[in-house]
Amino acid sequence: MIGVDLGTTHIRIHVKGRGIVLREPAVIAVVRNTEEVKAVGNEAYLMLGRTPGNIVAVRPMADGVIANYTLTEKMLKAFIRKVITGPGRLVKPIIMVCIPSGITEVEKRAVLQAMNEIGARKAFLIEEPIAGAIGAGINIAEPIGSMIVDMGGGTTDVAVISLGGIVTAESLRVAGNVLDSDVIRFIRFKENLLIGDRTAEEIKRTIGAALIRSNEEVKQIEVRGRDLINGLPKTITVSTEDVVEALSGSLQKVADAVRRVLEQAPPELVADIIERGIVLTGGGALLRNFDVFLRNITGIPVAVAENPTDCVVIGTSKALELVHLLQGTSDTRRRY
Fold it and tell me: Which of 59, 163, 180, 192 gives 20 to 30 Å between its CA and that of 45?
């Protein structure tokens, strides 16, 4: 049984009894105007922005859904082949795939069809907030309200969960990739410097923060890019203060979504959340002081899940044992 976190920026695969067996970027490199695959995952990621004219490296997932069906199928086939080949391994596995809570029926069918095409014996879908809650160790079957904020690469899912299902939720296409774009845009307008996606992500990971606390030291990093005025290479220094300013608008949208979901939740469940707190999952949970940022706005305790980047795929795999519960209460679907 296999759990797949089909993320916009990374693919993670968990196999029952073996743990997480694959963590690679959701990138594929192909020969231009053909379907010949040159590389997938880590190898393809290194090619982003550095390919010759006849090769293109792309992310076939966008905003948590399949943007290029053919390339996504080829990428998934390559990843699944890595984890199920060899003696004694499953040839036609049972696969559970996590999806954002706000995608359409057409997008869900595309994911199921992709799983069918790669040879799954059975394929199930589970919404990311529920998978994140399971992976974070929350007993979702209890009649108690829990709140999950899952910020991945393409989407941020905010949900209140009780009795194994989502009571109220909102899915934003504001997440890690948008934060990277915010950094690129800020540096472009402030310094007239053009940087790439990989550089922006490094800035966010190294010195990024949702806010700066009074006792914290402001970090700095040297950034290299192309001067938009003369076209020549240029090096500047970017500080945490710059990143906080760049990210403020997008993070406020996430905070507004949290507030809206709380307003829509039944008061009994809100009381539970005030007592139990909000749990952050996904790669975005690693943004420094993001938990403090949300706590300051909501007045509710906020905690980062243990191993937030992997808890969604761990929960996706564990959910295969809870299909009887999830099919009755959530949007978990199955296709044979």
Answer: 192
